[in-house]
Write a structure and sequence with these properties.
Chain lengths: 206, 210
Amino acid sequence: MTATSSTPFIAAMQVTLDGYILGPAGEADWVDSWADGLDLLPAVDAFVLGGGMFPDYEKFWAAILDNSAEVSEWLGRDPYPREQSYARVAAETPHLVLSTTLSHVTWPTARIVTDVNELRSLKRPGGDAVYVVGGPRLVTSLINAGLLDELRLIVHPIAVGSGTPLFGGVGQRQALELLRTEPGPSGRVNLTYRLRPATATTAAAA
Amino acid sequence: MARIVISGPQNVSLDGVVQDPDGKEGFRLGGWFVEFGGEDLEEWNKIALEEALRAEAWLLGRRSYEFFGQRWRPRTGELADRLNTMPKYVVSSTLEDPEWSNSTVLEGDAMSEVSRLKHELDGEIVVPASYQLGRALIEHDLVDELRLVVFPVVLGAGERLFGDTTDRKPMRLTGTKTIGDGLAFLTYEFVRKAGASEPQPLSIAQRSQI
């Protein structure tokens, strides 16, 4: 049972009730803070991110870290303490960016990997956890490759009807095990699921 | 004035799929209700009974009406007796002679018919397992509540509960609990407040994590 002792990959995503990461205009204004995903996690050894989101990600968190004036303009408010805390943790934790198109990154702890299989080495026994930050393409690639162990969703009380779905790229049916259902602030629900191995059936697991 | 409630309760996969829960429609991923409900369905049944007992009437699309009719007409017992005697309203332009007792066909413009029904009745009008009708009711802001049971599976394909809507639909969470071990029961009220739901302009802060 090596699966139980290897470092778990945990994705934490903010979705609408109808499963979208972004609405039809590319918006996600129901999200209060992107730092909220990390707050759902235990201590982590590494962050894993997709190449599509990474340029804006590093620009945003670098600005938080430097406490630059433009951050308050982007946010329409001052950064929360938990956002400053996120930036400090992120600056000290390895970031692996899965991409075949990015040529360089500026985040000090980031490096580019080109093959999803290179991420397997992070599953060494004895680690705490690996935080899968996003985006949806990376999360579904990891689900399809059988590499994602846990999914933590912040479900926002809104339906948008169309946009960018979290699960749009899932290639085949994925069985889950519900670990927790908890109400959060502002009508949010936190749902925590463990992903079941593809071969397990409900009968075998019971 | 009645309240329109999408429930029964409304079963849905984590990725929002509602198609063919019983596996009788030939959808390749059908049959997820029993497979992923498992032993939790015992407690699910209690909730379904409570929902039926407190409902004033059912409002259904034709296919769901025929499915439930075939299933419950021959049966007896607390749930069957309730469903067989409860007033049932079917939205259909083709159904002429409904066989299930106490049924009424809503013809003509379905949304104005439902609007009229909502004003005439009191209590809860429950819309069970009728996603096409449910989508139209949501689009026309006729739904007051939504009671979802989230099954622990990502199906990856299939018809979903929410279709394209012209506006976003903000909701208020009214309850969360776990049914058995693996089913999440989430209840919402729809919020109708003009101007409250306009999308805000994009900024790098929003794009930074997707």
